[in-house]
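I'd like us to work through together how a protein chain folds, taking it slowly. We need material for that, and I hope you will provide a protein of your own picking. Go ahead whenever you are ready, and we will take it from there:
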Amino acid sequence: VENWANLYMFRSLSEYFSFLNSSSIPMQQAYVLTYIFHNGPSSISTICEHMMVSPAAASQMVDRLAKQNLVQRVPDQRDGRVRNVTLTEQGEIFVLESIAARQKWVKEVPSKLNKVQMEQITSALQQLSAAYRK
């Protein structure tokens, strides 16, 4: 499992970096987009705490992403003084494309395995996923 995790991480990161190189989005900004994609609307303070950057740095990243129409600031529903950062449709498309780029190589693996191997691997991965969730 550890060997597969290492291989998966290396190959996925390689594909992700290649995708980022072909885009105009720096890695830290791409991370902000991915964080919001997985965690939902987020305040600047939440983003800066998670990324371990200053509020000014987080705000500058969000400003750059907003200029590219990848995020927008919207009032918090519970506290109108707080503005949350949300993805625009373009921001969501960017994240989905980055995920597809990272995982593209995985889709090629089954063609190198026979049916029995695929069934065994599928079963093992289902068990591994279930163990992780416990």
Summary: Residues 2-22 form the longest helix (21 residues). The beta strands are 42-43, 71-75, 83-87. The chain has six helices and three strands. The longest strand covers residues 71-75.
